[in-house]
Amino acid sequence: MTLSSAIEKSAVGFVAGLMVIFALSGCHSGNSETSPIAPAEIPTTFSDADWASVLSVISTPDGYVKWNVVQSDAEGARRPLMAYIGLINAVSPENHPELFATANDRLAYWINAYNTMCIYAVIEHNYPGTMLIGEPPGWIFRNEQFTFGGQPMTLDELVRNELEPAADPRIFFALSFCASSCPPLRSTPYDGAVLDAELVDQGQRYLSDPRAAVRDGDAVKLNDLLVTMHGSDFLAGFKKMLGVAPTGILQALQPYVQNDSPIVGATRVENLGFDWSLNRPPR
Fold first, then answer.
1. For the chain, first and last CA: distance in Å?
2. How does pLDDT run across 135-154, given as a tens digit for each residue?
3. For labeling, which of 11, 99, 245, 283 is most exposed (least CB within 10 Å)?
4. What is the pTM of this model?
């Protein structure tokens, strides 16, 4: 289930852009502080160096985003961000498969691209207070299109077409979609060569974070990402991994937790809800 499947569904029209990063729905704010920088030529190797430069200055140790730094460009992150968006706009595993040698290289590209476009959407919408902007709420994910290797696609379509076929629920620990309750934004790009270790670390980190799970006696409160949005993915992942169906979401999450997780030892689940406000650092 994609993000917007957890949000109230209704129809809204959208207008596809012809050349740049995304085709915008009619509700778009029209704000554009900067434009993507297209690569002078298609590279012979794909590099996340610009994204690494951005992450090093905008991500806090807790994985929130320093939006004041993004907005003011105080650390010079804007140009490499737009250069990386321009690269994503021009190159993907679909139109240049020769640049992505392994399945993990391809997955790392799509995870980084998703997270980058969420940052870009926030800039384009003038730093909204919530990621549920638009009508219906959540249309950034469902109706707004971005360009990946020349192909327009919504963020929901990216998840459905490029990530879900991997059948690895750990991917959902890596998608940082700029809401306060979402997984933390890492300070380095995902890298196909070490992607498995990064996803293990990200899962352990998120499932020990009060944004995702909070212990209350013998119960653990889990947020909607783990239960409503992607609970079925974790249930299916457990069955694929161990060959038996889990008894429920608590058991399905056990392979991804570390000892300090509030999930450990819990016997029942309660609802934590989900905070869709922009993931600014807590004051």
1. 33
2. 778 889 999 999 999 999 99
3. 283
4. 0.89
